[in-house]
Design goal:
Largest sheet: 10 strands, mixed
Strand order of the largest sheet: 10-12-11-13-14-19-18-17-15-16
Radius of gyration: 23 Å
Number of strands: 19
Helix content: 10-25%
Distance between the termini: 70 Å
Strand content: 25-35%
Shape: globular
């Protein structure tokens, strides 16, 4: 039977604008809140924590960052997809493993790619990676909810037919254990050791490889990002990547000039159950150690500090951080839901970086030892390169350990 409507002009076919559209995707929060939207990306159901990211660009890097494992990313920028996707901007080490965000939330429908670098449409790419997404959501309201109540546990579901068992989804959301006490590094780490030589991307040329390394750095992979490895290689290192479960003996067997502790997802205290003993032994060797994100948090634990779950976390590419070793401020990329408690530092450990948003800790160093770390992601380029100097700081520690002259750190934001 044809739907009709009566007007002064008589009986006319009912306009499509009057048709009721069935939602094809849902975000169900642990408190029972149900948010409807248009499903894009992969179909299915997944549990995760919901966070928001304030970056205007870099959605492909965000969604492929292993640090987002166990999370659904709400993008506060309304238009996502305009530069498409490509193989050069993927951050996870092994794309076939699809380490990264569980889901994504968008305000507007995914736009068609308009960049000359685009190799694929974002919707098709999301399907291929198994990322469930919702479009048409009031992301401002969802962001406000997260700011007020904290990052919620949730279930994200996409069914093209719009058939959902909402009571069951509510039960799943309420029952999910969340990120606290959850070790996710084992899920995203390398399965075996490997060697990395790729250097940073050069416009119109792509990637080159380090063929004449001066130093050897061993990177412990808790969920490492490719651009971190590229910057280390670009400064003159051969890099050996080892799994998160590597022991100190495993690392030292490679005779490294420097040791890098990578970023990664989950609760640092949970991953620290097996990682912290190795880190404690490594920092006794006086081999220079540099940590980022999860690596920073676990280094703090190894030094006797504490970590804690944050209310909403820091996720974005516009965070101001002060480097107290220079007094300068840099605009950085952040992605963490746990933070180091600087008040827990023992004697001999100093705070070096502080968030100017909330005063939380963003860096530390061991006095008189070649050991330091930062919470933010210096390999990203929101400043655009405000934090790249940290990699040179690491290499200068290596150079000093070998009796070589340091290279000046590049000036960054004033």
């Amino acid at each position: 039977m044809t739907n009709t409507m009566t007007t002064d002009a008589g009986v006319q076919p009912k306009s499509a604008a009057w048709s009721e559209l069935r939602p094809t995707a849902l975000l169900v929060l642990a408190d029972g809140t149900v948010i409807e939207g248009k499903g894009v990306g992969a179909t299915g159901v997944g549990e995760a924590e919901v966070c928001f990211n304030t970056a205007l660009t870099g959605y492909e890097e965000i969604l492929t960052d292993p640090s987002y494992a166990g999370q659904i990313v709400t993008f506060t920028f309304p238009h996502i997809g305009n530069v498409g996707t490509n193989k050069e901007d993927i951050e996870d080490l092994t794309p076939a493993n699809r380490a990264g965000a569980v889901g994504a939330i968008f305000k507007a429908d995914i736009t068609a790619p308009s960049s000359y670098r685009a190799a694929d449409h974002l919707d098709h790419w999301l399907k291929a990676r198994g990322v469930i997404a919702l479009a048409g959501v009031d992301t401002r309201a969802l962001t406000a909810l997260i700011r007020e109540k904290g990052a919620p546990n949730a279930v994200i579901a996409h069914d093209p037919d719009g058939k959902f068992d909402i009571p069951e989804l509510k039960k799943r959301a309420a029952a999910w254990h969340g990120l606290l006490n959850l070790d996710l590094a084992r899920d995203v780490t390398s399965g075996q050791s490997s060697v990395w030589s790729e250097k940073p991307w050069v416009w119109n040329e792509g990637f080159e490889h380090q063929t004449e390394p001066e130093f050897h750095v061993v990177a412990i992979d808790y969920g490492i990002k490719r651009n971190i490895l590229r910057l280390i290689a670009g400064l003159g290192a051969k890099i050996t990547i080892v799994p998160a479960t590597a022991t100190a003996e495993d690392v030292l067997a490679y005779k490294p000039d420097g040791i890098f502790l990578s970023n990664g997802p989950g609760d640092p205290a949970a991953t620290g159950q097996y990682a912290v003993p190795a880190i404690k032994d490594l920092i006794k060797t006086d081999i220079p150690v540099f940590g980022i994100c999860l690596g920073h948090q676990m280094l703090a634990l190894a030094l006797g500090g504490d970590t804690k779950k944050m209310h909403q976390g820091h996720h974005g590419a516009n965070h101001p951080v002060r480097d107290d070793t220079t007094g300068k401020v840099e605009i950085v990329s952040m992605n963490h839901g746990f933070a180091v408690d600087a008040a827990s530092f023992p004697d001999g450990v100093e705070e070096t970086h502080v968030s100017l948003f909330d005063g939380s800790n963003c860096g530390l160093r061991v006095v008189g030892r070649p050991v330091f770390s930062v919470q933010h992601h210096p390999e990203a380029s929101p400043g655009p390169q405000d934090s790249h100097y940290l990699f040179q700081r690491f290499f200068n520690l290596i150079r000093k350990s070998k009796g070589l002259e340091p290279v000046p750190e590049r000036e960054h934001a004033a």
